[in-house]
């Protein structure tokens, strides 16, 4: 792995774990056991690091928010897809902590982040409309709009809620977010009692999460 890639992944890890505000370029260099000058050769301070990470995040979400096959998902696949969305945001979760503060410090990330959120909302709206048209999801147009807001809120903000109110590790934070989404979605799915029970068993098994995780951010460069 190239030095620039190692720097980005280390910065991402530290920003996610400790918050961007508390991590300095020197901290990143120390974590990598390189000189601050070496880091500066690749990235001219935190501004360029944050901008590069946002670019990675954009590329990642462009792939995840593809509508290919989205209108043919089976009910059990909805859970996998929602988990994929929460996992993708979770990889870059520091962008969704204190968004106003980050926007003030790094104006260049404002438009890309807004575009990601807008695309996420449109994707969720398309998903629920498609499910509704196939009589799989029972909800009025107004209710679907509220569901989009609710699911988007859970995807982008649940990690921050968990960090403030519990001691969940990263895996359990994502599982908790998925559970919040599914407890809202499942009552509206047109499934038999046995199908819902099977879906609940899949959710509580945690096994599916190993197969549904997103690739490394470097895969989107």
Q: Mind explaining what this structure looks like?
A:
This is TetR/AcrR family transcriptional regulator. The chain folds into 2 domains: 1-44, Orthogonal Bundle (Arc Repressor Mutant, subunit A); 51-205, Tetracycline Repressor, domain 2 (Orthogonal Bundle). The protein has 11 helices and no strands. It is mainly α and 221 residues long. The protein has helices at 3-18, 25-32, 36-42, 46-64, 75-91, 99-105, 110-133, 141-165, 170-185, 193-205, 208-212. Helix 4 packs antiparallel against helix 5.
Task: Reconstruct the topology from this structure.
Blueprint: H1 3-18, H2 25-32, H3 36-42, H4 46-64, H5 75-91, H6 99-105, H7 110-133, H8 141-165, H9 170-185, H10 193-205, H11 208-212
Helix pairs in contact: 1-2, 2-3, 4-5, 5-8, 5-9, 7-8, 8-9
Keywords: DNA-binding
Pfam family, one: TetR
Protein name: TetR/AcrR family transcriptional regulator
